[in-house]
Amino acid sequence: MTTTDDRLGASPEPTGPVSRIDYSERIPNNVNLSTDRRLQRALESWQPKFLDWWKALGPALPTKDVYLRTAIAVGRDGWAIYDFVPMHEYRWGIFLAEAEPDRRVNFGQHKGEPAWQTVPGEYRAELQRLIVVQGDTEPASVEQQRHLGMTAPSLYDLRNLFQVNVEEGRHLWAMVYLLQAYFGREGRDEAEELLKRNSGDFDNPRILGAFNEDTTDWLQFFMFTYFTDRDGKYQLGTLKESGFDPLARTCTFMLKEEAHHMFVGTTGVQRIVERTAQLMAEHDTDDILPYGGIPLAIIQRYLNFQFSVSLDLFGSEVSSNAANYFTSGLKGRWAETRRDDDHVLIGATRELTKVVDGRFATESVPLLNALNLDLRDEFIADCRTGVKRWNKALADAGVPHRLLLPHEGFNRKVGVYKGAHVSPEGEIVDEQTWAAHVDEWLPGDADRAAVASLMQPVYEPGRFAGWISPPPHGINSMAVEFDYVRFWQQDNA
Ligand code: BYC
After folding, report:
1. What per-residue confidence (pLDDT) applies to 19?
2. Atom of ligand 1 minimally distant from the CA of 224
3. For residues 371-393, b (16+ Cβ closer than 10 Å) or e, as one string?
4. Residue 202, by phi and psi: left (phi above 0), alpha (psi -120 to 50) or beta?
5. Which 8-state DSSP code applies to residue 409?
6. What strands, in cross-sheet order, belong to the sheet with 485-486?
7. Angle at Cα 406 formed by Cα 403 and Cα 410, nearest 5°?
8. 379 CA to middle of ligand 1, Å?
9. Ligand 1, CB cutoff 6 Å, lining residues
């Protein structure tokens, strides 16, 4: 059993040159905020509004403190410490990855020019839009996950939820810093708007579709962190290539934090699948709901839903916006500098599949216009690895069923498949067939009610709800039984 003294585990000491984060400031930062009084004042006047938002729409479960990771440096090693922190006292701050000396714009018409340290006047509107869209998703996800703490399957999972939440809050800070530092009055106004739009709000919703969906339960949360956070990974990966250096450096550091969010999703679904497989084998039935497990068919429907709404986040397959972002040097491709081409792409083409007269048809389109598709393909390939892993858990348990990553055209509201009906297996179907089968393909009220019936909170250290397997390891080398989250009433008892 872990003792109190073991609790303050730190990650390894930094080995290379790192710019340490100044925690003596009201807003921790590694951007010398104290030398820019105007910006400091603007951010300090936004800070209480952020805290008000966090209190109103952040995690609803009252807690005393949580074993959280906080960034202390941006270098490759030893960048974070772990400690108990009351969540509203988390040190949200502004952390940019180290500047790369002589960094250049690596793609588009400005390829080879020095990377921009200020906003190029001609691209101001587009750049601001990209930063606002990115910034809007961060608080949206916190709002979506607000009530999940009430039904956490364990303290380990509760802590992971809160870690994701505080870091999404920090990612909002990252975008607000860029808006306030580089976009003047308009940027300050946009920073305010980021706290005023709310997920699912009828009059003032979040910008992108998936961020207005309810995160109804923990199965959905794990699917969200697997699929939708992974869109975040890929979008940040393209903004990390940006010719606008402060954006590139910000996103580079955000990606470091993002890795844990992917881990939460991948292992969360894996642990549910493992438990489901175990119950199926034990009771020799698919219908494991009476035994406290989540049936595979419901897992598949949740997967179908979250994958398809996450594909919509890539925008239209053919997009002049995407072409302009690339040509202007604002948003690159995934792993841009590792690609073996001219990074300008004029005259290059690629194949695009769409539905024409009830059949799949392939046409050739300019690659520049198909960059959302290029990114989506990278994303889909990555998504397959998780499904493979989950299927291995089924195979290992001797369960013959397999999970399927649906066809890219399934349930799409954005892009070339919008308006067509494609089954998860990739068959184009008519309206009636769709209507007859949609309940087999997407989660309905009965599924959500069934999952909700299992969502009873487990707050005892080391115990786990019956629908999910325990993880093999704890966080930061702590025991799985560690009390990762502490509540007020424990002290009063
Ligand atoms: N819902 O040419 P189009 C994350 C709009 S997730 C509603 O098709 P474009 C995270 C689009 O804005 C990553 N509207 O697409 C994850 C445009 O409107 P405007 C977030 C949509 O512009 C989990 C119009 O339709 N970051 O970080 O090439 C937890 C036509 O657009 C949708 C980014 O997305 C939709 N699904 O690409 C926490 C990166 N899709 O501008 C965080 C920044 C499109 O004409 N954003 N529209 O009024 C972008 O790069 C692009 O805006 C998009 C769209 C990829 C989103």
Report:
1. 54
2. 23
3. bbbbbbebbeeebeebbeebbeb
4. alpha
5. T
6. 80-85, 65-71, 485-486
7. 150
8. 15
9. 129-130, 133-134, 137-138, 141, 168, 208-209, 228-229, 231-232, 235, 312-316, 319, 321-322, 331, 372, 414
Alpha carbon separation from 233 to 87, 230, 363, 383, 407 (Å, rounded): 24, 5, 29, 12, 21
**For 330-388, how does the pLDDT look when each residue is reduced to its tens digit (9 = 90+)?**
999 999 999 999 999 999 999 999 999 999 999 999 999 999 999 999 999 999 999 99
Q: How far is the CA of 326 from the centre of ligand 1 (A)?
A: 15
Q: HSE-up of 245 (CA within 13 Å, CB side)? A: 15
DSSP 386: H
Question: What three-state secondary structure class fits 68?
Answer: strand
pLDDT interval class at 79 (50, 70, 90): confident
How long, in residues, is the chain? 493
CA dist 476 and 11 (Å) reads 8
- Enter the DSSP assignment of 61: S
Residue nearest to atom 45 of ligand 1 (CA): 321
- Show the 3-state SS of 192-229: HHHHHCCCCCCCCCCCCHHHHCCCCCHHHHHHHHHHHH
Question: From CA 174, how far away is CA 254, in angstroms rounded?
Answer: 8
Indicate whether 480 pLDDT > 90: yes
Q: What is the mean pLDDT of the chain?
A: 93
CB 106 within 8 A of CB 33: no
Name the DSSP letter for residue 152.
-
DSSP letters for 170-195: HHHHHHHHHHHHHSHHHHHHHHHHHH
pLDDT at residue 355, as a whole number: 96
Q: Cβ contacts of residue 406 below 8 Å, gap of 6+?
A: 303, 304, 307, 308, 424, 425, 441
Exposed/middle/buried for residue 103 (C-beta within 10 Å: 0-12, 13-18, 19+): middle
User: Which candidate, 245, 227, 228, 89, places its Cα nearest to that of 162?
Assistant: 89
Which pLDDT band holds residue 13 (cuts at 50, 70, 90)? very low
Q: Which residue type occupies 386?
A: G
pLDDT at 1: 37
Distances (CA, A) of 246 to 19, 178, 281, 486: 15, 7, 53, 37
Name the residue of 190, 411, 414 to mutate for ligand 1: max ligand atoms within 8 A of Cβ: 414
For the stretch 112-144, pLDDT in tens is 999 999 999 999 999 999 999 999 999 999 999
